[in-house]
Amino acid sequence: MQELDYSANQCARETSSVTPTNATSPRRIRRLPERQTADRIDLFALLDDELVGHLAAVVDGEPVVVPMGYARDGEHLLLHGSTGGGFALRAADERATVAFAVTALDGLVYARSLFDSSMNYRSAVVYGVLETVPADETDAALIALSERLMPGRPAEVRGTTRKETAATRVLRLALDDVVMKARAGGASEDPDDGEDHIAWAGVVPLVRSWGPPSASALTPAGTPIPDSVVARMTRSTGEPTPTRKSVVALRTRPPGEHRLH
């Protein structure tokens, strides 16, 4: 991850809440190596917090990277693919090494100079070879992926048809070779750095939340918001969600009219 804090002096005086550990992966981070961590709890928290990563590989001598939805299933990542093609399927078929990156931006760090300003983040890159989930395990893998992205949704809708399953391939990437890097904490503070300490310095945290649900055009008026939607919003924000009564009348409307009343 490209960072804003290029200063060697800042590296020496910066404080961080992340405690580095010895990585199990042979890979080592060269830029600010003290931020590398092999804590599986931290890794799993990052992977479970995010929904989209970027898959990269070399195809015909050219680098290719695409964003993909994913879900962690134990010690693996599950990626949804189609039998129609795509470089991910080709990489799996050719047993090519790929990299899958996941990043969470947690805040902007405002220092008293642009040079020392930074970001708080968590970032992981998973290296390995994609494998195709066997056909007899595809349905279970799709349910596991759906439960991560939309918890509770599989129980609310019809099952996958044989035709749909036949058109789907689920790819699996082991979490064996992973490098994780993280930064947390405030801006560097040094009373003798010659900077103007009247200027404000600190952290602006990034907070994300889901908006009010908007029903599709074919959803009958009065249809209650399903538990899976409530679960998704709660899991992502930790905040109280809109009541079903307040959103039950929401339907597809012109932009700007999706409001809670």
TrEMBL record:
Residues 7-25, 234-244 have a biased composition (Polar residues). It comes from the Bacteria. This is Flavin-nucleotide-binding protein. Residues 1-27, 234-261 are annotated as: Disordered. PANTHER family: 5-NITROIMIDAZOLE ANTIBIOTICS RESISTANCE PROTEIN, NIMA-FAMILY-RELATED PROTEIN-RELATED, FLAVIN-NUCLEOTIDE-BINDING PROTEIN. Pfam families: Pyridox_ox_2. It comes from Agromyces bauzanensis. Gene3D superfamilies: Electron Transport, Fmn-binding Protein, Chain A.
